[in-house]
From TrEMBL:
Domain of life (superkingdom): Eukaryota
GO molecular function: copper ion binding; oxidoreductase activity
Name the record gives this protein: Multicopper oxidase LPR1
Lineage: Eukaryota, Viridiplantae, Streptophyta, Embryophyta, Tracheophyta
Signal peptide: 1-23
Family, similarity comment: Belongs to the multicopper oxidase family.
Length: 590
């Protein structure tokens, strides 16, 4: 076992050296060799932007079905990716962005919100109209889609969706403008989304190999809702264009000319000229506006809050002390609403909440963020610009409100504890560093994305995954296709001994993980107790997760061949980690 591990490490070192040598022959675009911008300049630009002067916008809505008589029927949509300019703030010039839309004129940051209906399949042709070169720096020394004839590779993943593997947006299924060049796993221009899962909140975003962090930073993201009136309407939650709103939160930094900033120099340039382990912006945007303002009446509002940041965690609260009533998490409702004063969202997580402004004792409230970065032990945000997200101006007196906060929601949210015979896996998160402690890459189970799949669950089954975090950071683990629910978070006792063994053997069983995972346990937040597609993995702990490879509300198997190529993946949703290369293949078996 030791000799095999030594061989693996030697091969890994050789691969890194070869990659760096190849990168040294790569011609970089002008943005990639630009003079580095100092952090103080980015902070000064952010500080110059007055808060709460821009109104919170809402994105255009596209319906993923049509009505024919009294019947809902499928539709075919065409949505493109375009380079355009977006006004992030009153005092910033228009910013070049990559965004989704039905045309270049209607494309927005974020993209249009797609509203689908459960059980009505949707077909989307995704088109790439992006230019020959990226507007942000990239780094070919991480596993990256590299076209030979120019163009920006892109591919779309509907995050949280249950769909065939050919429509998953494989990192290897990328394509450039007009499908001029395609990746090795590209097979089709039109994706099929069956919408057969429980009603809830999803989102779509780019997933191109090694470019996810840059493509999302540029703006390739948008919201997606699956509705089911039989479940949605009886709860009488706030509804309509005014009282049911998205809050898509993403941090960004801006150069003095208003362009988006992304680092052009890596933390270890001799290995990765551009890649850094996390991107943290100096300003907070919501729905594409920097620190916006929303006018609200004294009534209940529903907010579908998505953390679309590359790496930033959010710990949200309201300055006037109003609570959140959480009704859903990621793509599923809860069994009952949860009242809480704070909500922690990792990148890619969604909280579906109700805020009742009728009980406010103030006429103004700020949405605050207290999450340090990196999370959980990094730089504090409290008392800084990054501690503020947006504001609400609460107008007038009491108004009529026929919405409610329901007493009960759905009965499929609760997880059934796994039987002793349940297939169990150990998943280990590693970070690799230089002798001085600088991060160079991150792997799952010590393996690359290109290595053969070791997670091969049977379609229609449920498994128990013990995810062990041997890094200093919290990681949002995202599962394609499968739905997850954490059931236990246990501290690793004798951590250094276990860590030393794992770096030698890379085998949790041989390193006696059951003797180490015996420390204190952390509570799982009540507002996360439902079927999710993102689960936070605490550093120095083992998080046990029930993973269902089936439709959770009906307990049925998938009505499509989930075993087909190109398969699926699971990965960390800190995009800088995913790109380099905390991502592994997931191959379902019949």
């Amino acid at each position: 076992m030791r000799s095999q591990l030594k061989l693996h490490l030697m091969l890994l070192f050789m691969a890194v050296v070869m990659t760096v040598m190849e990168a040294q022959t790569t011609t970089y675009s002008a943005t990639q060799i630009s003079t580095p911008v100092i952090q103080q300049t980015l902070q000064q630009v952010a500080a110059s932007l007055q808060m709460y002067v821009d109104a919170l916008p809402q994105m255009p809505i596209i319906y993923g079905y049509s009505v024919r008589g009294n019947t809902l029927v499928s539709v075919n949509l065409t949505i493109g990716m375009y380079q355009t300019k977006w006004k992030f703030h009153r005092d910033l010039p228009p910013t070049p962005v990559f965004v989704y839309g039905t045309s270049a004129l209607t494309a927005t940051f974020p993209g249009p919100t797609i509203i689908a209906r459960q059980g009505i399949p949707l077909f989307v042709k995704w088109e790439n109209h992006l230019p020959d070169q990226h507007i942000l720096p990239t780094d070919n020394t991480v596993p990256t889609a590299i076209p030979t004839r120019g163009g920006v590779p892109a591919v779309v993943h509907l995050h949280g969706s249950v769909h065939p593997p050919q429509s998953d947006g494989s990192a290897f299924a990328w394509f450039t403008r007009d499908y001029n060049e395609v990746g090795p796993m590209w097979t089709q221009t039109t994706y099929q989304y069956p919408n057969i899962q429980p009603p809830g909140n999803l989102w779509y975003h780019d997933h191109a190999l090694g470019l996810t962090r840059a493509n999302l930073l540029a703006g390739l993201l948008g919201a997606y809702i699956i509705e089911k009136p039989e479940i949605d309407l009886p709860m009488t939650l706030p509804s309509g264009d005014v009282e049911d709103l998205h809050l898509i939160i993403a941090d960004r930094s801006f150069n003095t000319d208003g362009t988006l900033y992304m680092n052009s120099t890596g933390n270890v340039p001799s290995i990765h000229p551009q890649w850094q382990p996390e991107y943290f912006g100096e300003a907070i945007t919501v729905n594409g506006k920097v620190w916006p303002l929303l006018n609200v009446a004294r009534k209940r509002y529903r907010f579908r809050i998505l953390n679309a940041s590359n790496a930033r965690y959010l710990n949200l609260s309201l300055s006037n002390g109003l609570p959140f009533y959480v009704v859903g998490a990621d793509g599923s409702y809860l069994s009952a609403p949860v009242r809480t004063s704070t909500i922690v969202l990792s990148p890619a997580e969604i909280a579906d909440v109700v805020i009742d402004f009728s009980t406010s004792t103030t006429s103004f409230a700020e949405l605050l963020n207290s999450a340090p970065y990196p999370f959980p032990t990094g730089t504090p945000t409290v008392g800084t610009l990054l501690g503020k997200v947006m504001a609400f101006k609460i107008n007038g007196g009491q108004v009529f409100d026929n919405s409610t906060i329901p007493i009960k929601e759905v009965n499929y949210a609760n997880v059934t504890m796994p039987e002793p015979s349940t297939k169990t896996r150990y998943i280990v998160l590693y970070e690799y560093t230089t002798p001085s402690g600088q991060s160079t890459h991150l792997y799952i189970n010590g393996l690359r994305l290109e290595d053969p799949a070791t997670e091969t669950p049977k379609s229609g089954t449920t498994e128990l995954w013990h995810v062990i975090n041997l890094t200093p950071d919290n990681h949002p683990l995202h599962m394609h296709l499968g739905m997850m629910q954490a059931i236990n978070i246990t501290e690793l006792v004798g951590y250094q001994q276990f860590f030393g063994c794992m770096t030698q053997l890379n085998d949790a069983v041989l390193c006696n993980v059951t003797d180490h995972a015996v420390g204190k346990t952390l509570p799982i937040p009540e507002y996360e107790k439902t079927w999710k597609n993102n689960v936070k993995i605490e550093p120095g702990y083992m998080t046990s997760i029930v993973v269902a490879f089936k439709i959770v509300d009906t307990n049925q198997s998938y009505p499509f061949d989930a075993t087909a190529q190109p398969g699926y993946v699971y990965h960390c949703h800190i995009l800088d980690h995913e790109d380099n290369a905390m991502i592994r293949p997931l191959k379902l078996l019949p």
